[in-house]
Amino acid sequence: MAERSFAREVQDLRLGAGAEFRGEGILAITKALLQSGVGYVAGYQGAPISHLMDVLADAQDILAELGVRFESSASEATAVATLAASVMYPIRGAATFKSPVGLNVASDALANLSSTGVTGGALIVIGEDYGEGSSIMQERSHAFAMKSQVWLLDPRPDLERMVRAVEEGFALSEASNTPVMLELRIRACHVHGRFIAKDNRPPPMTLRQALENPVRDTDRIVLPPASYAHERDKIARRWPAAVKFIKEHRLNEVFDGDVAEIGIVVQGGLYNGTVRALQSLGLADVWGATRVPVYVLNVTYPLVDDEVAAFCAGKRAVLVVEEGQPDFIEQAINAILRRAGVDTKVVGKGVLPMAGEYTASVLAQGVKGFIAEFAPASLADRVRAPNLPPIMADPRVKALASAVP
Question: How distant is the alpha carbon of residue 55 from its chain centre?
């Protein structure tokens, strides 16, 4: 059963090149799939991507016009297994479900898909649901990306960047013959904004055409000795191809600032909250212009070693803003810098909590602690010693402030 009707909003999915698309993140993701020439989409309901399923269900007429197949799967494993159509055929396919419980269920199908590799782009849109408000166990999608060597996108919550992540995600998948995961938090799914649309693209090959012209390559089946050849191909060709694509297409972003002795490395999905924390300290404006250099990881796996080293070189310290545990990215950056001979101090868990959702208030406290230690001169006097109004001393206000951000 649909959680919400998008019968009116889906009409905007027909917008063509040059038109301005306005709406929330989940609609932008759907439009991006259609602009990318997706051939089929499978999914399983779960927050925060349930509304993506609802949008697709309400857009059946539009999908039919383009020759796109959509189905609600019996499980997350079924949804990922559907992507096997992209192994032999140049068809772009997508799957979507809640994570991490969905990745637990789909783990075997995902491992087989990543081992054999894909011909058509395969994109898995996962709803990252981490923190106190989550309805499931506290695990991270990052672990599954590392385990199976699938690439993980975590786009900045901005509609233009999210649309680009979908389009580039398919291209990255095809350039490296590897499935790609794109993780979205609740705030990204429901953020509102605008972007300039492109024409929807019918898939160059449909599932019906593939069925009528079957292809079989036994070397793509994950059984010995092919499985060992798949593993070698991952490391020798597919991983370097992915890194090359990420660098050449500048999927990650650097925002420069004049407080050059420090920097912040942030997961793309946490960018808005991090900039809001800097704004509260007088170190960024409402448009995102920041005085502290920020390196935005719109791709959190794999990391690009020379990009990381170049950003950190010459800085006294960098803060890694990474939600959840274990601290995979922080550990990886430490290893990258040591191998590169860069002695920049890496700070992360410590000033920021090991577990729990990184809300705006949590980020503000952690970022302030980091800057106070490594670049205190950049903090305004009002931030170092805030002059609070008398009402803040009222015990009732203090009690409220302890519970409400």
Answer: 20
Cβ atoms of 336 and 303 within 8 Å: the answer is yes
Evaluate the omega torsion of the peptide bond into residue 386 and state whether it is cis, within 30 degrees of 0. Answer: no
| E-assigned strand segments in 36-165 | 40-43, 69-72, 93-99, 122-128, 151-153
* Predicted TM-score (pTM) of this structure: 0.91
DSSP track, 86-122: HHHS---EEEEEEETHHHHHHHHHHHHHHHH--SS-E
Q: How confident is the model at residue 47 (pLDDT cuts 50, 70, 90)?
A: confident
The string of pLDDT tens digits covering residues 270-293 is: 999 999 999 999 999 988 899 999
Asked if 94 contacts 125 with a C-beta cutoff of 8 angstroms, the reply is: yes
- Cβ-contact 93, 86 below 8 angstroms: yes
Instruction: Assess contact for 142 and 126: CB atoms under 8 A.
Output: no
Please say whether the beta carbons of 271 and 296 come within 8 A.
yes
